[in-house]
Design goal:
163 residues, mainly alpha
């Protein structure tokens, strides 16, 4: 239960950041079709850097909230003897690598189409809330005692008060 609660919190910060990145892209590009993302990191470096960090969190790379989530989920599953669940959590990381990489490849390694020369970075009014969530993803990956402690306390409370 502790692992699930901390995962809900960490995943919300990560996915919230990704949704705000998508909003920045839609605002400037009018959509998020993969081909429209070719070379976009050159024009929207802050937006795409946020995508990369949130993507690393979805994958579960250390120093991100996603790592803390996946680590606690795997430990909880192994502790209960649920090896298939632990393998499934690790498999989701491999799946995330595939779909995050596809966007990173388009944004950073494909040339910017000539018609996209007027595209610029998202406005600060969009970047600030995006980066608050991206920063939270890193913060709770480095300093996990707050989120893990609150999740542990909540889990204990739920077990004590349940009938």
């Amino acid at each position: 239960l502790t692992a699930s609660l901390v995962h809900i919190f960490n995943h919300a910060a990560t996915k919230g950041g990704l949704f705000l990145v998508a909003a920045c892209l839609v605002y400037r590009l009018g959509g998020t079709d993969i081909s429209s993302l070719n070379g976009i990191a050159k024009r929207m470096p802050w937006t795409m850097a946020g995508f990369v960090i949130a993507g690393l969190s979805l994958i579960g790379v250390p120093l991100t909230a996603g790592f803390v989530s996946k680590w606690t989920l795997v430990l909880g599953a192994v502790e209960r003897g649920w090896w298939p669940v632990a393998v499934l959590v690790l498999a989701t990381s491999l799946l995330a690598v595939a779909y995050i990489w596809k966007i990173v490849e388009a944004a950073y390694f494909q040339p910017l189409p000539t018609g996209n020369s007027s595209i610029k970075e998202a406005p600060m009014s969009m970047l600030i809330p995006t980066w608050v969530l991206i920063a939270a993803t890193v913060y709770f990956g480095v300093e996990s005692s707050l989120s893990l402690g609150l999740a542990r306390d909540a889990a204990q409370f739920l077990f004590v008060t349940s009938p």
